[in-house]
Amino acid sequence: MRSPMFIEGMEEEEILIVDDTPTNLEVLFDCLDDAGFEVVVAKDGESALQKVEKEPPDLILLDLSKIEARKMELHPRELYFPSFLTGVVSMCRIKASQKAIDFIYQPGKGLPASILADEKRLRQVLLNLLGNAIKFTDKGGVTFKVEIIGTGEVMTKVLTTNQVRFQISDTGVGMTPEELSKIFQPFEQVGDPHKQAEGTGLGLAISRQIVEMMGSSISVTSKLGQGSVFTIDLDLPVAASDQSATVGPQAGQIIGILGGTRKILLVDNSVENRAVLVDLLSAIGFTIIEATNGQEALDIASQFSPDLIITDIAMPVMDGLEMIRRTPQARDIVMIVSSAKVYSEDQKRSLDAGANDFLPKPVRTDELLDKLQQHLGLEWIIDATGPSQDAAQPSMTTDSLIVPPPEEIESLLQLARAGKFSKIKKLAAKLEEYDDKFVPFADRVRFFVKGFLELALIEFLKELQ
Fold it and tell me: Residues of the chain with pLDDT > 70: what percent?
């Protein structure tokens, strides 16, 4: 006899349970397994993320019993806002690229560097809303905008609050007024039946409850056939010392490495942690390769010959410190340990194992770049003027550019239409290596690649044909 708590028609689908309570796991597993579901279990968010990235389940149950009983608690802590946002954006860009739609990230001026928030829950909400936007958009794209819309009260001498708006807009299928009134109801699904089959409608209901616990609400507007806009305004505590720190477009931005690229091996079993650094470092011009554990890193390093390795400590199969000890060419490679374990004994263990430096998590962009510059003797190529405030609308002026031959433009155009940004970057690099006169053109191409502005790049290249 099948349990009535689940939706009809989902038998033999795969369900991922994320819970660290043995009793909950046992009850849920038995119930679902008896009902004929394929059950996957993860005891923490990081493990769940790896499973989802490898093979997305049909449904995720995340602390469901606590949410249903309204017993879920928030655990705010200080987190580095730029890295948090970059991680969310990186994951969503991957999903958008798989559908060949645009994903545009628009960080506003003056976003705080450090905030107090429940990182796990805030990420859960944003990924749910962004994931839905991508799922229900087949043409055009999704825009993720984060900006400060107000400054709140001073809480203490070192804390104040900023009202931060998170806005997700899409050019997807949209909703009717009737559908709009039902979207936050548990197990309610609206829109295309084919896309409904990808879940059960729990995500928005859970997200709304989490946001309400944070003292806010989710507002939504939608037009059938035109798309939807979801907005959350959150009062986030901000360290007073970070008020002047900014994220996003600003003058003096690093756009390249003088003298060519360097090779970096990232070793971390967290998909999100790697995605943050890959997004940041590849945009500057580093060549990046990834490993999920120490043994895999050893195998890769012997062939890849990296200039620098950034590794976590705790990983399956082989940890980061053991990997450093076993690296034959360790003396010729700069080793940086990056870990959330920031006690002095952990740093000492890292240095004793042979590491050259230690980088605390969450990684701060300025600190990471300073260490790379220091250990690799780098000189940055700086954009003294900074990018346009409207990064989604780059200038299309091409009169002053010296452009490559038509066949190269055509190759770039085909790659752009396929969304193959890595190959676009490589081709741009080859062009400027072939002749310095193509450097401005390559810089322009990299500008589009850095923002994953597929449609804008296509228009730019078509203008050159």
Answer: 69
- Is the same domain home to 196 and 84? yes
State the alpha helices, DSSP H only, in 64-180.
64-68, 81-98, 119-135, 177-180
- Please give the angle made by the CA atoms of 69, 166 and 366, to the nearest 5 degrees: 110
Phi-psi region of 248 (alpha: psi -120 to 50; beta: other; left: phi over 0): left
Task: State the pLDDT at residue 224.
Answer: 93
* 104 located within any domain: yes
CA distance 23 to 29: 10
- Residue closest to 44 by CA, chosen among 119, 125, 114: 119
Per residue in 277-288, pLDDT (tens digit) is: 887 888 788 999
User: With contact defined as beta carbons under 8 Å apart, do 254 and 284 qualify?
Assistant: yes
Same domain, 38 and 104: no
Domain CATH code at residue 19: 3.40.50.2300
> Which residues, 6 or more positions from 376, have their beta carbon under 8 angstroms from its beta carbon?
262, 307, 308, 334
Give the residue with greater pLDDT, 423 vs 439: 439
Range with lowest mean pLDDT among 212-226, 251-265, 377-391, 428-442: 377-391
Same domain, 107 and 146: yes
* Residue 160 sits in the same domain as residue 43: no
How many H helices and E strands in the chain? 17, 17
The conformational region for residue 169 under phi > 0 = left, psi -120 to 50 = alpha, else beta, is: beta
Overall number of domains in the chain: 4
Residues whose CB is less than 8 angstroms from the CB of residue 464 and which lie 6 or more positions away in sequence, other chains included: 398, 401, 403, 409
- Write out the two tokens for 181: 């009134």
Give the pairing type, strands 102-107 and 77-80: unpaired
Same domain, 204 and 161: yes
Give the range among 66-80, 153-167, 320-334 with minimum mean pLDDT.
66-80
Q: Which domain holds residue 228?
A: 77-242
Min mean pLDDT across 170-179, 194-203, 293-302 is at 194-203
Contact 200, 57 (CB under 8 A): no
pLDDT at 28: 63
Indicate the average pLDDT of the chain: 76
Which has the minimum average pLDDT: 217-231, 308-322, 400-414?
Answer: 400-414
Helix extents (H) in 156-268: 177-180, 193-196, 202-213
Quick one: 33 and 107 in the same domain? Answer: no
Within this chain, do residues 289 and 258 fall inside the same structural domain, yes or no? yes
Q: Which residues pair with 401 in a beta bridge?
A: none
